[in-house]
């Protein structure tokens, strides 16, 4: 049986991201978010309207999405608080500038994506940046010999909760390939496998 819950927010498992951006006061800065999705060479991220990150990304029209792992959760939380401050310095985050965007690629993150803003949509006190992906870089430890992502070794932090309690969750060691649950693989092209 299901019950209606009274909450203004519901996080049903989103990866935590660190958004890097150009900041004229600190050169570069970072903020934490869990509002993103990617399709092909497009990515959308959501940030609170009128925040330091939102204002600067609107101004410069570029940013990076960086996927942290649980070993740097303290840095993730510092980046999520202290609005308008030098959060890269406060969290002692090391970085290199992007190759195609003027925003930081965070060294301690397992994956980073360089993004150019294509559209901006404001709704309900949040700004959604729809961007084209210019480059993806991944930590070598999660890339196989053929240059492909080792998905079973990729271990991001997930954000779950409501307006009353929010928690971080992590993957367990169990994984399955696409199609395993119905008896076929992504490579199959039979009548029952699409």
Automatic annotation (TrEMBL):
PANTHER family reported in the protein's UniProt record: FLAVOREDOXIN, FLAVOREDOXIN-RELATED-RELATED
UniProt entry keywords in alphabetical sequence: Flavoprotein
Annotated protein name in UniProt: Flavin reductase family protein
Family per similarity comment: Belongs to the flavoredoxin family.
Gene Ontology MF terms: FMN binding; oxidoreductase activity, acting on the CH-NH group of donors, NAD or NADP as acceptor
Superkingdom of source: Bacteria
Pfam family, any one: Flavin_Reduct
Start and end residues of each Flavin reductase like domain: 10-151
Origin species: Gemella morbillorum
Cofactor or coenzyme needed: FMN
């Amino acid at each position: 049986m299901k019950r209606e819950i009274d909450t203004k927010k519901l996080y049903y498992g989103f990866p935590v991201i660190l958004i890097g951006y150009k900041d004229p006061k600190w050169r570069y800065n970072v903020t934490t978010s869990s509002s993103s999705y990617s399709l092909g060479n497009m990515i959308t991220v959501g940030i609170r309207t009128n925040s330091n990150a939102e204002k600067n990304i609107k101004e410069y029209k570029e940013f990076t999405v960086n996927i942290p792992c649980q070993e740097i959760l303290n840095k993730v939380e510092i980046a999520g608080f202290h609005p308008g401050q030098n959060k890269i310095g406060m969290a002692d985050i090391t970085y290199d500038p992007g190759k195609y965007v003027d925003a930081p690629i965070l060294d301690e993150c397992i994956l980073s994506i360089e993004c150019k803003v294509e559209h901006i949509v404001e709704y309900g006190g949040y700004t959604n940046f729809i961007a084209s992906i210019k480059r993806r870089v991944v930590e070598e430890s999660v890339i196989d010999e053929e240059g492909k992502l080792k998905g079973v070794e990729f271990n991001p932090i997930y954000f779950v909760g409501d307006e009353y309690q929010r928690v971080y969750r992590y993957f367990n060691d169990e994984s399955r390939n696409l199609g395993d649950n119905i008896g076929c693989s992504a490579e199959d092209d039979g009548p029952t496998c699409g």
